[in-house]
């Protein structure tokens, strides 16, 4: 009985993890460049059944656990904004940025603007790397960004938005604000293929599938409730057994 309770508790914890992931996806359904989380499940260790199983060779599972599979980096829909500093990445890859703490990072969020220091920065304050700086008097309407990332201001080239990719994007580490840093498992950032381009005046939407996310949430909730009911039933049976002993 106690083993069954432990197994059920592990299952509830796994479903709670999935609910948290789906809730995060739904909360970011309108976040520029957001990539939905991937959650899977794996079984825990098996133990020899012993009593009350019919055979000493029988094995009893100890539950399941949730496994994070990183994120799904499939392309999101492009949304035209008309803003000159907005860029959407078409194809695999990321914009190179430098975070406020000095770390090099990657992002799919192309919602860029000029900050008070005249630098081109992201919506979360990361500086496009290498740094692109504009002279005084240059307005956003004076800026054009080519498909290869070349940035022009009043007809003069001022820099280039560099795109990078990694061997295994699913293993990038999220640091919040739509930014990621490389890990040993993701591999180092390298140049993107020539097929990856930027589209000026557009942003990439979230790739969260609302219908699928709602289905996953309902499924996880029902499984959580069923497991919770099993624990309640087991608790009632133990109370009855204790009453018989007395």
From TrEMBL:
Q: Where in the cell is it found?
A: Bacterial flagellum basal body
Q: Which Pfam families match?
A: Flg_bb_rod (PF00460), Flg_bbr_C (PF06429), LlgE_F_G_D1 (PF22692)
* Family label: Belongs to the flagella basal body rod proteins family.
Q: Which cellular component terms (GO) are annotated to the entry?
A: bacterial-type flagellum basal body
Q: Where is the Flagellar hook protein FlgE/F/G-like D1 domain?
A: 88-153
UniProt-listed InterPro entries: Flag_bb_rod_N (IPR001444), Flagellar_FlgE/F/G (IPR020013), Flg_bb/hook_C_dom (IPR010930), FlgE/F/G-like (IPR037925), LlgE_F_G-like_D1 (IPR053967)
Q: Which residues form the Flagellar basal body rod protein N-terminal domain?
A: 5-35
Q: Which branch of life, at top level?
A: Bacteria
Which terms are listed as keywords in the entry? Bacterial flagellum, Cell projection, Cilium, Flagellum
Q: Which organism is it from?
A: Solirubrobacter pauli
Task: List, in alphabetical order, the GO biological process terms annotated in this UniProt record.
Answer: bacterial-type flagellum-dependent swarming motility
* Signal peptide residue numbers: none
Main location per the UniProt record: other
Q: Which residues form a coiled coil?
A: none
What protein name applies here?
Answer: Flagellar basal-body rod protein FlgG
Report the residue ranges that make up the Flagellar basal-body/hook protein C-terminal domain in this protein.
Answer: 200-242
């Amino acid at each position: 009985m106690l083993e069954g309770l432990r197994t059920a508790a592990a299952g509830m914890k796994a479903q709670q993890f999935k609910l948290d992931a789906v809730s995060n996806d739904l909360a970011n359904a309108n976040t520029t460049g957001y990539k939905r989380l991937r959650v899977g499940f794996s079984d825990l260790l098996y133990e020899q059944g012993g009593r009350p199983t019919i055979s000493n060779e029988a094995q009893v599972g100890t539950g399941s656990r949730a496994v994070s599979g990183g994120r799904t980096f499939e392309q999101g829909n492009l949304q035209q904004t008309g803003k000159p500093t907005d860029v959407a990445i078409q194809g695999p890859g990321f914009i190179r940025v430098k975070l406020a703490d000095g770390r090099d990072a990657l992002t799919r969020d192309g919602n860029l603007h000029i900050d008070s220091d005249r630098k081109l920065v992201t919506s979360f304050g990361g500086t496009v790397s290498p740094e692109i700086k504009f002279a005084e008097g240059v307005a956003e309407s004076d800026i054009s960004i080519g498909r290869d990332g070349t940035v022009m201001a009043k007809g003069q080239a001022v820099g280039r938005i560099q795109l990078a990719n990694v061997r295994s994007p699913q293993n990038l580490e999220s640091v919040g604000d739509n930014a990621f840093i490389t890990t040993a498992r993701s591999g180092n950032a390298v140049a993107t293929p020539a097929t990856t381009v930027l589209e000026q005046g557009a942003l990439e939407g979230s790739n969260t599938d609302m219908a699928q996310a709602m289905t996953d949430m309902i499924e996880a909730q029902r499984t959580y409730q069923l497991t919770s009911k099993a624990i309640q039933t087991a608790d009632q049976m133990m109370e009855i057994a204790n009453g018989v002993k007395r």
